[in-house]
Amino acid sequence: MPIITISRGSYSRGKEIAEKVANRLGYQCIARETLLEASEQYNIPEAKLVRAVHDAPSVIDRILYGKEKYVAYIQAALVRHVHQDNVVYHGLAGHFLLKGISHVLKVRIIAELEDRIAVVMERDSVNRKEALRVLANDDEQRRKWSKHLYGIDTSDPSLYDMVLHIMKITVGDAVDIIDHAARLRPFQKTAGSQKAIDDLLLASLVKAKLVDHRPNVEVSADDGTAVVSTVGDLGEAKRLADEMKQLAGNIPGLKDLRVDVIPPTVYR
After folding, report:
1. pLDDT-based confidence at 197, cuts 50/70/90?
2. Is CATH 3.30.1340 the classification given to domain 191-267?
3. Does residue 207 carry a pLDDT above 60?
4. CATH classification of 3-187, choosing from 3.40.50.1580, 3.40.50.300, 1.20.1300.10, 3.30.1330.10?
5. Contact residues for 117 (Cβ-Cβ < 8 A; gap 6+)
6. Given this model, what pLDDT does residue 52 score?
7. For 209-261, what is each residue's pLDDT tens digit?
């Protein structure tokens, strides 16, 4: 059975659908748990992690790589959670953070604006104008966040295996459709897709270890060997490699670590 990621706009019934799908399939349903685990593992206040994945990037974040660090921590926690499958994840950016894993079923839930407005009005006891302002701000923050980190828009339907519009399709219908899709052959785990998630887990753990030391690192992994790319002075290559190997040395499954230093002039 696949890993299921459910992307959702605010107040679109996505959380409810995720919980019902997980209950139907006997899966674990997670979202905030990844924030809590990352907060504890990397000693980052949960409030900062929440802001990192909800707020649009500021100038200072772009300069200091603040959001990239937090997202690296969240990705490491998420991949650790889903590594053994049987998980429905309905937090932000699951389809990004698990990119390249073929046994991930990527679902987007959308809802009518008027239905979303009604939910906000009831929840916050505000008028229609204020509810619309809240929704517009939330949608814009999410759009800017995904554009900043990944250069794509979370509302782009091509990012998903299916987009379900909650209107004629009810919550119960959506659960039935996702349940059916989860049993289709293209979303079943294979030896190749298991290797892909094994490699992603190692790469994400290594990056989470290194990102505070070198915020601009990129990490890939293959059968226990991690390759780290970072921008720096070639004369510092050996020192950087030694430092990174020391920082990452106790990660389970890491057999070897190679460091590629890219001169700033080449990077530009």
Report:
1. very high
2. yes
3. yes
4. 3.40.50.300
5. 128, 131, 132, 135
6. 67
7. 998 888 889 999 999 999 999 887 877 788 888 889 898 888 999 999 999 98
Condensed to tens digits (0 to 9), the pLDDT of residues 154-182 reads 888 999 999 999 999 999 999 999 999 99
Strand partners, 229: 218, 260
* Interatomic CA distance for residues 260 and 174, integer angstroms: 46
Strands 3-8 and 87-89: parallel
Helix, strand, or coil (residue 102): coil
**Structural domain spans, the chain:** 3-187, 191-267
- DSSP annotation of 63 reads H
Taking only the tens place, the pLDDT of each residue in 52-104 is: 666 666 644 654 557 778 788 888 989 998 998 899 999 877 888 898 899 99
Find where tokens 């509302």 sit.
155
Q: What is the DSSP string of 44-99?
A: --HHHHHHHHHSPPPHHHHHHTHHHHHHHHHHHHHHHHHTTS-EEE-STTHHHHTT
> Torsion angle of alpha carbons 172, 175, 177, 179, nearest 10°?
-140
Token pair for 3: 């890993």
**Whole-number Cα distances in Å, 90 to 2, 37, 73, 119, 257:** 14, 16, 17, 19, 33
DSSP for residue 239:
H
pLDDT of residue 1: 80
